[in-house]
Amino acid sequence: MPRIVTYNVHRCVGTDRRLDVGRIAEALAALKPDIVALQELDVGRRRTGHVDQAHEIARRLDMACHFHAALRVEEEQYGDAILTHFPERLIQVGPLPGYDRIRALEPRGVLWVEVEVDGRPVQVINTHLGLVPREQQIQAQWLAGPRWLEHPQRQGPTILLGDFNATASSVVYRTLTAHLMPARGLAPTKSPTSTFPSRFPALRIDHLFVSPHIRVLDVQAPFSPLTRAASDHLPLLMDFEVV
Q: In the 3-class helix/strand/coil scheme, how is 89-149 assigned residue by residue?
């Protein structure tokens, strides 16, 4: 039974304001994931000690790593990653469009890796949408279009996941569920899936969406002293089968 986790790690700075890459890796290791999608990683940034957080977490988990920088300032990078110990290959990465009326918005990106699960290719797409509702809507439409979810290579088992900064009542959610199914609704047991803020999780803004080829066995947001402290989001995991 494979397990996938999406986790906004807040540049490995916890709710106690302590920078600790090892703590994030420890929180993930305790979940025993096969595939990990991470958001808000620093790579070579002065503010976090010039550490390559993506590859350091992957090293500690003994996983391969694909990182995409949504933001680059000279040698400093900030973005998202997909980690796995399954056979994998990078399909594509790219930026998400912004909202032209607000030019100071943080750049956002998307990362697509094909992962071989039980001998079958699974398309795993990790993203992190913006904070402004109109910006999110533009980005969701982009994801739903021909460059991503309607891309000719995006066939068969698919998992879209990440931090969407939007709840299930949003236009973003409706846009994406027109193409893929919300994993939470398919889970046989309705476990807590609110992920933000991690100390007192009240909002479901991290999501997993799946194609019909994915049988969802469980979806939950593990709530423990470690996950409450390691980041401002809880991780969100899904156990699944490819059918």
A: EEEEEEEECCCCCCCCCCCEEEEEEEEEECCEEEEEEEEECCCCHHHHHHHHHHHHCCCCC
Cβ distance 184 to 173 under 8 Å? no
Whole-angstrom Cα Rg for the chain: 16
Domain total in the chain = 1
Q: Is the pTM of this model over 0.70?
A: yes
pLDDT in tens, 86-114: 999 999 999 999 887 777 689 999 999 99
Q: Which of 39, 34, 31, 43 is nearest to 8 (CA)?
A: 39
CA distance 48 to 45: 6
Q: How many CB atoms lie within 10 A of CB 185?
A: 11
CATH number at residue 100: 3.60.10.10
Domain with 95, as residue range(s), is 3-242
**Positions of the chain with pLDDT under 70:** 104
